[in-house]
Write a structure and sequence with these properties.
With 628 residues, the chain is of the alpha+beta class. The chain has helices spanning 22-28, 34-40, 50-72, 110-118, 139-151, 214-224, 265-273, 280-287, 293-303, 316-328, 344-354, 412-418, 464-516, 520-530, 571-574, 578-588; strands spanning 77-84, 95-103, 155-160, 167-175, 180-189, 196-205, 229-233, 239-242, 359-364, 368-370, 373-383, 394-399, 402-404, 439-447, 613-615, 620-621, 624-625. The strands form 3 sheets. It has a 9-stranded mixed sheet with strand order 5-4-3-6-2-1-7-8-15. Strands 9, 10, 11, 12, 13 and 14 form a 6-stranded mixed sheet that branches.
Length: 628
């Protein structure tokens, strides 16, 4: 029997030395405050680089101002100021900025100011199902936290709730350990506004142009908010003014209760347990939308749960069965009044505010539901004019009227555009890419709850129902664009034919006149009156844009010469055959160039509002041609 050599003997596993005990580990385990969490993870809230931090700060404050004005029934007038207060700190060009956003909203009552601006997860929108820009209760306090973290400066708020009421100026800091506001200064100041709020945050940031910059955000915001009047004071250059184009506020969105078909089991359980003193039937009727007394009874019967059972005593299988029964009963779809789309006409107005195009079209889909949340998708499209001809389409994504500028690849809205076959609408489209051409596409999702992919609210999650509606809306607009382009193509080719005839009729008339010994004028008159037989003039005009604007692209043929007017001999008798005319034309010389496309009517220009303020003007920036 062979014995193992010492080298082959198994080495006894050495026991690792204990590093920590359950007790020592326990001594380090403690609660994490939400402020501490987001201090470390500020990228989750959209503060991952200085340029984005500036945009997010402006965006959170503007969104809040718009929400507050609309909720109070006030036409919003906003001032956004971005001022550089330090010098660039490093090669990336980041610097210290002071951002101020001022609104004419309802103001904020004094005891609430500190919590709103210096406590994360505090707000009025999270617990309700109502369409609004904000929903999480974290936006503005996160911006203040970022400012505090990068500059050590407090957030400054001025707020006034009505005429004759004091304006409070409050300086705040967040105690991140406790997620609690520290009031550093609290005073009453003179403020010439009747009511409103002004937020000032100092932060390390970078001011950039381009698609993800603050200016682009504001330009897009006015597209989706025609009722907004905005003044923007950038760090350098002229003040921009965006006067409102609609004098009416959007209809107020109705607050709704959860729809029974979208409720998840855990949520149902919480709703039942949070209702002491109520029966199961009562909870079903009171806390869900569209559940009547008889429907509540039907659910209870299906679930084999007595309708009178106290809701807080429901546990185990009963919850499962109630949940299943809720999914089985037939319930009316949620009411459409809880979602407020921009509307087809105003979407076109918004597009015109930004792009000088020839053709505008929009579509608003009927309301639909994902996970019990009602939503509406609408799409607007601008084509031609000053939009760049060889670039990919300019896509603007909106959720509850807020532009989404980051994470396009992760967003269901982009997916719906990439997945559409734009070639069938007469646009070029490289495989798996955006369509090419002078086209701008706006997609707006309005919902009582927008399913963002992260807390930074940058992209919309791809729920099947959402994607389906988005694709249908994009396709609807695409079809209208395709029809317009085809009609325009036909009209342009008819116009070419018309020009050809007009160019050669005098020469051919002269030749034929001399052959037939008839005056040239008589022959020419006959030619012109016979023209409609050869050129389809009237019926080939491209259709008017949906807002009633005249068609663009110059497809309208010019007026016929006066010689074409009535009184001529019968066209069939006097006019030579097209082949005779063509032969004469060939003899007469080279083919004239295609008729020039008529320029679209000029866009309305904005008035100057004040000496130093310039109205927002179209700008060529990157692939985008901007216009008011
Ligand atoms: N300018 C303002 N005027 C009036 N109320 C405001 C204003 N700004 C904020 N608020 C109130 O402060 C709350 C907190 O704002 P915050 O931005 O932190 O959260 P939110 O808007 O509710 O949700 P989100 O985190 O998605 O933005 C709001 O819900 C609103 O009630
Ligand atoms: Mg907010």
């Amino acid at each position: 029997m062979e014995t193992a050599s010492p080298a082959e003997e198994p080495i006894p596993a050495s026991r690792p030395a204990r590093r920590a005990t359950a007790e020592t580990m326990a001594s380090r385990q403690r609660e994490i405050s939400v402020s501490e969490f987001f201090t470390k993870n500020r990228h989750l809230l959209g503060f991952d680089n200085p340029a984005k931090a500036l945009l997010t700060t402006v965006k959170e404050a503007v969104d809040n101002s718009l929400d507050a004005c609309e909720e109070a029934g006030i036409l919003p007038e906003l001032i956004v100021e971005v001022k550089e207060v330090g010098s660039p700190t490093n090669a990336s060009g980041s610097s210290r900025f002071r951002v101020a956003i001022e609104d004419n909203g309802p103001g904020i009552v004094k005891p609430q100011i500190a919590k709103i601006f210096a406590k994360l997860l505090y707000g009025s929108k999270f617990h309700r199902l109502k369409q609004s820009r904000g929903q999480q209760g974290i936006g503005i306090s996160a911006a203040g936290l970022y400012g505090q973290l990068t500059t050590g400066r407090p957030v400054v708020i001025i707020s006034k709730i009505g005429k004759g009421r004091p304006a409070h100026r409050i300086e705040l800091r967040i105690d991140t350990k406790r997620n609690h506001p520290d009031v550093l200064k609290d005073e009453v100041v003179e403020w010439d506004k009747e009511h409103g709020t002004r937020v000032e945050i100092e932060l390390v940031a970078a001011y950039r142009g381009g698609r993800t910059g603050v200016e682009a955000y504001l330009e897009q915001t006015v597209v989706a908010n025609p009722h907004l009047g905005l003044i923007f004071r950038p760090p350098k250059g002229e003040v921009l003014s965006f006067p409102r184009v609609a004098d009416e506020l959007p209809r107020e969105a109705e607050e709704i209760k959860p729809h029974p078909h979208g409720v998840e089991l855990g949520m149902l359980l919480r709703m039942l347990h949070d209702s002491p003193g109520k029966s199961v039937k009562q909870v079903l009727m009171d806390d869900f939308s569209r559940i009547s007394a008889s429907l509540a009874e039907q659910v209870c019967t299906l679930a084999k749960v007595k309708a009178k059972t106290p809701a807080s005593s429901i546990v185990g299988d009963d919850v499962d069965r109630l949940h299943t029964a809720l999914g089985q009963v037939k319930v009316k779809a949620p009411s459409a009044s809880c979602v407020v789309p921009i509307g087809e006409a105003l979407l076109i107005e918004g597009l015109k505010r930004r792009f000088k195009a020839d053709f505008y079209v929009s579509t608003t889909r009927p309301p639909s539901v994902y996970r019990g949340n009602p939503f509406v998708v609408e799409v607007g499209l601008a084509y031609g004019g000053e939009l760049p001809t060889d670039d990919p389409a300019d896509v603007m994504r909106f959720a509850n009227r807020v532009p989404l500028q980051y994470q396009p690849k992760a967003c269901a809205i982009s997916e719906s555009i990439y997945d559409t076959n734009w070639r069938s609408y007469e646009l070029q489209q490289p495989r798996g890419a955006l369509p090419l051409g002078p086209v701008a596409i706006v997609v707006h999702l309005a919902s009582v709850w927008v399913p963002f992919t992260s807390e930074a609210k940058e992209a919309v999650a791809g729920y099947d129902e959402l994607l389906r509606e988005m694709k249908l809306a994009v396709q609807e607009c695409g079809r209208k664009l395709g029809a317009h382009l085809r009609a325009r193509e036909r009209a342009v080719s008819e116009q070419k034919r018309l020009h050809l005839f007009q160019r050669y009729i005098p020469e051919v008339s002269e030749a034929i006149g001399s052959i037939l010994a008839r005056p040239k004028d008589v022959v020419q008159k006959s030619f012109f009156s016979a023209l409609p037989n050869f050129v389809r003039i009237a019926e080939e005009k491209p259709k008017a844009t949906p807002d009633g604007a005249p068609p663009s692209g110059g497809a309208t043929p010019p007026d016929l010469p006066s010689g074409a007017a009535g009184g001529a001999p019968s066209a069939a008798a006097a006019a030579p055959s097209p082949s005779v005319a063509a032969a004469a034309a060939k003899k007469a010389g080279p083919k004239p160039k295609a008729a020039a496309v008529k320029a679209p009517p000029p866009m309305p220009t904005k008035k100057r509002s004040g000496k130093s303020v310039r109205p927002h003007q179209p700008k060529k920036r990157g692939p985008v041609s901007l216009a008011t």
